[in-house]
Structure formats: structure tokens, C-alpha cells
Amino acid sequence: MSHNKIPQGLSVSVIIPVHRVDKAFNKCINSVINALSKNDELIIIADGIDSKSLNFLSDSNIKILSTDKISGPAVARNSGARIAKGDLLFFVDSDVTIPSDAIKNIVLIFRNNDEVKALIGSYDDDPAAPDFFSQYKNLFHHYIHQTSNENASTFWGACGAIRKDIFIELGGYDENYSQPSIEDIELGYRLVSEGYKILLCKKLQIKHYKRWNFSSLIKTDFFNRALPWTRLMHRHKRFLNDLNLKSSSRFSVFIIFLFILFISGSFWLSEFLMLAGTLGLLLLIINFPLYHFFQKKKGLLFSLKVIPLHWLYLLYSGLAFGLGTLLYKLEKLPVSLSEEPKIVDEYLGKPVEGPQKYS
Asked: Which domains occur in the chain, in start order?
């Protein structure tokens, strides 16, 4: 166990749920161990896997819990929080690595800023997986966080720390989210609703080892993020102008639908093609900072490949918002008329009832 010199006064419990022991997990654990001090602890939740596969972790600062079945990150993180002894809970995903000074810097921020009740970090700009989709997704995430407001409006479970007393007060993660979804965003909404400050610490950057492909990217963005997030925004009546919900992104969604409309109409009226071209140019101008970021990081060819994928992202984000809004409206109907949304909710792992919190 590496014992870094940590500022006195606050101890940290690092909580990591895992449902697959692989090379990324091993890298994750090693990075966390290198960042711990003697007053901190590491809590690993074997979510639906045999805890014997973690027998190689024998340090006294490491606690291992196990669940009978895969319960999802909300339940797993809450389980870890129940036995945590630290003043701060630091949630880390099992497929990321953290810098060796991450915990020390987190403690410094909380110790010197009493108004900060939670903080989140960012992916770095050097994703581990080399393929196009993984580079695109992880770099896009990095760009969004690095260009967003430091006074954050959501929480992030992959790299997020929170004062334990506040976490307990709010009831932890909503356990209705039975699979990875927006359980961390929902917690962030409750934090902000209670007037608590969440800091986006842009210098706290972690490396992501997840591999993405075209289908997993769309499935995650559409079903696990955009749909439930839309319904969450309606329930809280709070529509952010931050992260990937900035005004420029919303305007881009509107433009992409007009672009498709005019492209389709050009088969009947050729003048529509010029209008579509104008809208396409407008999309390029609005999103030029993003495309320029990709060009600087990965080159011109990579950036050109990003453009159609990003436009597709805008399209299905808009569709998800429309469908999510419809599902939210249907939730308000009598039970006999709202059975169909529950089928979708089972897939999303999110019933229509209010938050189920741990106690």
C-alpha cells in the first residue's frame, strides 16, 4: 500500500463497484492504492461476481463486499457507502485509473472550501482504447467537461466525491436504477435542489479504458442517458444550459431536423437543396470549436469522420428528448393508460415511481 502525505482532517473512502475482473480493473485498483493514505480505505463491491476472484487484494485498508446478483451501480455504491468510515466518499468506476495525487487534491479542495459539498472530475484527453469510436466518445466527454461551468449542475459516479453526511442526508443513489443509467445525474439534481454546491474540478482527470462500438454508443446515449435524463428534467422542471444541454447544442438539434427536412424535400423541390446546404454550413459554424478540438487532438481526417457521427448524435438526442417527453406525459395519465411506458421503463431499469433511496 502506498501512503501519500494527505492533508490532515478528512479521511476518504474510495468506493468501486465491479462486475468483471479484467486488466482495466487491475489498473484501476493499482492506481487507487497508489493514491491512498494510511487514514483512507478502499471498498470494492463485487456486484454479482464471486468475491474469491478478488482474493489477491489482501491489504488491511481494503474491504470487499459482494452481492448475490448483479444489482447495478446504484445499489452497489450505496452498499459500499453504508460501511464507509471516511468523511468523504469518492466513487470511482472500475474501468478508469486516477492520478496518484487525486485523493490528496480532493481532500485539499474539501478542506479549504466548506461550501463545496461534492465534486466531479473529467476524462483525460488520452483515452486508452485506440479505435475510432472509443477515441471519439471519450474525447467528446473530455471536451464537454472541459468547456462546462465549474459550478456543476450534476454529479458523476465515475469520478465523483461527496461529503458523507450530505450523501446520507439525501439518501444516497436512487436504487430504482437497476443498471448503469443516470443514477449519478439524478443524485446531482437532488444536491442542487437542496442548494448544495457541486464543483467541476477540470484538473482532476482520469483515464478511461472502456471500448466503444457504434451500437453500444447509440444504445447508451439514447436508452440509458437521454431518455431517462429527459424525464428527470421534466420531473424537476429544470432544463440545464450546461454540459451537453447547452443552448448551442439545443439549437443544433433544431437545425439538424430542419436540415433533414429540406434534404428530403429537395427530391421534390430543388430549391430546398440550397436551404439544406445553408443549414449544414450553419451546423459546422456552431460546432466548429468541437470539430477544431478533434482536429488538434487527432488530425483533420479524424475530425472529418467525427462530423457525420456528431450530427447523428444530435439527431437521436432530439428524438430521445421527444420520446422522453411523451413518456413523461403518459406517466401523468391514469394507470390503465400508462402501461406501455412501463415496458420501456423495465428496459431502462427505471420505474415511474419516485426515488428509492438506501437507508
From this structure: 12-212 (3.90.550.10), 243-348 (no CATH)
